[in-house]
Amino acid sequence: MLPTAWPGAQIALSPQEIELWPNTASARALADDWPTGRPASFRVPTLERAVPVCRQLARLWMDFEGITDEGARCVALLVLSELVTNAIVHTDSLSITGRLQKDGDWLLVEVQDEGGTSSVPHRAGDANEYGRGLVVVAQSAQALGTRRETGGGRTFWARISLTG
After folding, report:
1. 70 pLDDT more than 90
2. Residues 1, 147 contacting (CB under 8 angstroms)
């Protein structure tokens, strides 16, 4: 599980920045000089377009942190994408916060929403188009969990091995 206080880079993007991404001053600044050696935290509005922006932020952060194992990177992007998508689709949140932290041989991924309806893992039937995401995340990560936040939100977290 990740700490609740984040001493690392904290980025907040507006709906306008999400829509214009990557043609924004924030995107250019991060691409040139992401703070290294620290966790990353990014708050985004609950727009569908925020999912690929979160993936790009995660890729940039992993690049600057020297996380090169393609397996770990793919799992991290899958986990982040699914958790961000679930927060957008299944909660009443106005914004969500994604967090990444390298801890030895582990990558910790967290997504916090502001509350509302929660997703829980379940088996989707053969005819269902949706409903497999958290099951796939649980099978991809070495650990997966959730916690309730004091403000009514919920945090989903995953731990991913960086050593294969």
Report:
1. yes
2. yes
